[in-house]
Every structure is written in C-alpha cells, then in structure tokens.
Amino acid sequence: MSEAFCTEIGPWLRTAARPTIDREALALLFAPPVLYGEFYPWQGASLAEPPARCSTGPGAGLGPAFGRAVARAAADAAVIGVSFSGGMDSLAVLAEACRQARGRRVVAFTIALVDDHGRAAADVAAALITQLGLRCEVQVVDTTETAAVAWSPIGPRLDALPQLNAALAARAAATGCEVLLSGDGADEVLEVPRFATCELLTARGPRAALRYLGDRGRGSVLVDEAAAVLARAVPQRAGARMYWGATWATTLGAPVPAVVADRFRARVQDWSTRWLAGHLDRCREHRSWAARFAHDAIWPHAPLLDAGAIPERSPFLDAEVLTAAAALTPAHRYDPDLPTPYQRNKAAVVSLIEPDHRPMLPPAKQYFQTALGALIEPCQPRLLTAAGVIDPAGLDTADTAVAMTVTATETWLRDALARGARLPGVTS
Predict the structure, then answer these.
(1) Threshold 0.90, pTM exceeds
(2) Phi then psi dihedrals of residue 163, to 5 deg
(3) Closest of 272, 279, 270, 277 to residue 299, by C-alpha
(4) Distance (Å, whole) CA 202 – CA 222
(5) Which residues pair with 109 in a beta bridge?
(6) Cβ 269 vs Cβ 14: under 8 Å
(7) Using H for helix, E for strand and C for coil, what is the string for the chain?
C-alpha cells in the first residue's frame, strides 16, 4: 500500500508525481567522502554547523550547555531511556539524566556484546552504575533480539549495525520509555585532535606536550607533529595540501569502489572531485592543523535517525553543545593530569562528570571489532543490482564500509518500495 512521506530531503526525483528514487543520488552513497566521512550527500540532510567564533569563551560554557541539552532531550518524558555501552560518553549522558530525573524512571539499556579483550559490556556497565550509585534500572539486550529498523525518507541508516539499535529501541519502547538518549557523536565533537603539540606546549607547557606525544604513540606521529609545525611557515595552499596528505587522502580521497556500476562511476567520481576541491579550499582557512582536524572530525555530520518507534536524541549533537565545543582549544580537550591516556584524551567529557565520580571512570576504551564483525549479515543486493546502481562482482573486493553501505541501502530500498516508492529499472 502506498504511504505518504516527504521527499524534500533524500535521494528523490523532485519532479516526479509519485515518490521516485533518484538512482544517481543513491549512487553517491558510495562516493569515498560519504563512505568514510559518514554523512549524507544530498542537500539539507546534515546537521547545521554553528557559526565560527560564536561562543563566549573557550570551555566556559560546555558543562552548562550539556546539562541544558540533556534537559531538552529528555523534555517531559516520564520514563527516560539511555543507550549505555559502559563507555565514557554514554556514562556522562546517563549520569546527567539520573541527576535531572527528579523522581522519573531512568532505564539504562546495554547490548550484550563482548569486547576485544573478552570483557562483557553488560558487566562493565552494571559495575559502573553500582560504583557511581546511579539511580536507574538496567536492562541487557541480547544480540539475538530482532526488530524492524525504522525507515526514513532521508536515506539509509549510517550506523554500523542498525538491527541491534532497532532491537534496543524496541526494548526501550516496550519498557515504557518515551525518549532514548545516547552518547553518539561525542568522540567527533569533543575528543582531542591530532597535531596539537604546538598548542599544548604554548598553553600548558612542555609536560603536557610531551605527555600528549607519548599518548599518541611514536614513529609516524612525530613526523606528523613536525609537519604540522612546518606547515605554519609555508604558503597556505601548500600547507593545506600537506594537511590533506597527512589526514584524509587515503580515505576520503580513495578511488570510487569497484562495486559502483559503470553507468554511475563518472557521476560519483565527479561529485567526489568537486567535494574534495571544496574541502581543500576550506583547509586553507586554518593555519593550525589541530583546529582544522577538530573541525573535520565532526563536519559534515549526519542527523541521528530514530531506529524504532520512540525519538532518539544525543545531547552531544545538540546545537548549544556543538557551539560550545567549537570554541574548545586542544588545551581544553586534553588534560595531562588525568591518570590514563583514554581519560586524558577525553578530558572534555571527563569535565562533564561530577568530580567525586571521576576516580571510578573507565580507564580505557572498549573496542568490539570482533563481536561486531561476526554480526554483519550477508546481503544479496537484488534491488541495487536490478536498478543498475551496483555491480555485484565488485563485492568480492569490498571493504567493511562498502559492504555495510550495500546492506543498509538494500534494506532501505526494500522498505521504500513497500511504502509505494518507485525505483526506475525495477518498478513501473
């Protein structure tokens, strides 16, 4: 049955009387800047970037802005859900939600993943909640739980495993939650950038700069940091090209993947070339590579789409938090006095957590590459192939980003057609 939906933003032909998918626009999901930058290539689909230098002072407003962002996200929900992995970012959200609950139920949801060191995320999350004395309920979502992923006309979901997020959202809805909060975007928005040695040396002295270098590692790190210093002495155009070569050239500047069908390769390549040229022009706006990298880590950024029936919000992607974060220097993002490299590089997030709780914070980041890799479902891209968007022979050499985009796009197309959309080459 046909279902009414807005086609103003997304891969749609604007002149068609019936919602009709624009295959050229859809193919742009496989442009390297989109694949590895994780944003939507169509106009109006990204979050609005705050104006430059619009904050009142570096670091001064982040804590209050975050508190207000959590309040706006939770609004008047009687039951507040929080997607809680046991990491620093979602912990900051959960702790603030509990602080502001004022008698409302707060429920933390953790997916039952095992990290690459064999630690169960649910055990880590439960231990943190107990140690910090957070007043909330805890529910564990098993990886075998399934739920339909909510569909949006904006485009396919860009998260790694949308089926897990949909299962968590379904559990939250069944529990009575009226909103689901998360720590999405915190790494991109607040983590200390690369190339920050000069800024830290100037603002916080040799000890901070040396500790930052030690946390980043050795070898090519020293070459990168030296290049960032040298770039300040060369013409801006040359410095911008040096920055590009040291950062995004092998990902955003990669060749169009082999999976893109011949009829769309030229279009995808042309779009990528024009996007990269614009990006290189913008690189010249910053003499500081650290400032440029902090900007590029977040922008452009896709909106957070709901995975299920209840609204999802990340306080880190709130406009006020983004504005406060834009004013942060590396000296406000890195704290040499914190006890572990993970915490030192997450100093801005640590600052959002009550001082009495900081000794109990996670000492290191959890990674789930093995567990997530085992959960990627194989996909037969029948619709993408029939529409002539991809060449399935190219799947043999596809990396994880390409394979996941194929799966997400095929799923999105199937659901779009079920809602009455037209796909040229497949439906009449």
Answers:
(1) yes
(2) -65, -35
(3) 279
(4) 18
(5) 83, 139
(6) no
(7) CCCCCCCCCCCECCCCCCCEECHHHHHHHHCHHHHHHCCCCCCCCCCCCCCCCCCCCCCCCHHHHHHHHHHHHHCCCCEEEEECCCCHHHHHHHHHHHHHCCCCEEEEEEECCECCCCCEHHHHHHHHHHHHCCCCEEEEECCCCCCCCCCCCCCCCCCCCHHHHHHHHHHHHHCCCCEEECCCCHHHHHCCCCCCHHHHHHHHCHHHHHHHHHHHCCCHHHHHHHHHHHHCCCCHHHHHHHHHHHHCCCCCCCCCCCCECHHHHHHHHHHHHHHHHHHHHHHCCCCCHHHHHHHHCCCCCCCCCCCCCCCEECHHHCHHHHHHHHCCCHHHHCCCCCCCHHHHHCHHHHCCCCHHHHHHCCCCCCCCHHHHHHHCCCCCCHHHHHCCCECHHHHHHCCHHHHHHHHHHHHHHHHHHHCCCECCCCCC
Q: Tokens 């720590």 identify what position?
A: 183
Tell me the backbone φ, ψ of residue 291, rounded to 5 degrees.
Answer: -65, -40
pLDDT tens track, the chain, 428 positions: 356 688 889 999 988 889 999 999 999 999 999 999 999 999 899 888 876 654 444 455 999 999 999 999 999 999 999 999 999 999 999 999 999 999 999 999 999 999 999 999 999 999 999 999 999 999 999 999 989 889 999 999 988 788 899 999 999 999 999 999 999 999 999 999 999 999 999 999 999 999 999 999 866 888 899 999 999 889 888 988 999 999 999 999 999 999 999 999 999 999 999 999 998 888 877 779 999 999 999 999 999 999 999 999 999 999 999 999 999 999 899 999 999 999 999 999 999 999 999 999 999 999 998 988 888 777 889 999 999 999 999 998 889 899 989 999 999 999 999 999 999 999 97
- Cβ neighbour number for residue 401 with a 10 Å cutoff: 18
Structure tokens at 416: 């779009």
Q: Label the pairing between strands 179-181 and 137-141.
A: unpaired
Length, in residues, of the chain: 428
